[in-house]
Amino acid sequence: xxxxxxxxxxxxxxxxxxxxxxxxxxxxxxxxxxxxxxxxxxxxxxxxxxxxxxxxxxxxxxxxxxxxxxxxxxxxxxxxxxxxxxxxxxxxxxxxxxxxxxxxxxxxxxxxxxxxxxxxxxxxxxxxxxxxxxxxxxxxxxxxxxxxxxxxxxxxxxxxxxxxxxxxxxxxxxxxxxxxxxxxxxxxxxxxxxxxxxxxxxxxxxxxxxxxxxxxxxxx
Length: 220
Known about the structure:
Blueprint: E1 2-13, E2 22-32, E3 37-48, E4 78-94, E5 105-122, E6 143-157, E7 164-178, E8 193-205
Antiparallel strand pairs: 1-2, 1-8, 2-3, 3-4, 4-5, 5-6, 6-7, 7-8
């Protein structure tokens, strides 16, 4: 099963102090056995525009909160949430709620993986060298660590392979830490342990490849 998918997620715990709600897009490749067990891999790109952590640029800003560019004018500085999430997952389909076939039903999976997020800093005008190249790394809060994911939803595979989809609730917990050796604004390394969570709704379309085609029976 090749499954592109999309999720809307709400951060929790330490992650909610840094970012607002985010979008998540990616996909998975999984194999389903005859007994409805599923195993596969998945990868997703995380992106958002709501940065809640304040004061990151205070040390290089004016009293009014602006950053001066090389031309003496205020620099155009934009910040975004960016990240990715990769996992190995396993689970099972339970053919209940009157499915069209045994491949459809309640879908329950669990996964173990790796989650990373950071603040992407952009200066479109290119007039803020203090936030370009390696200097931006001192402010971007790149953070990553081991993640655990649970999913509960419904999978539908039609008899004719024309309509195949899934949807449900996804819960992510990650044990992370800042991986930069030095934060310019705090003038020290952040070695604190973090607990980041993402909770949301994921939906996707399923492209199926069957090992064996259904046997055709003809009647005279």
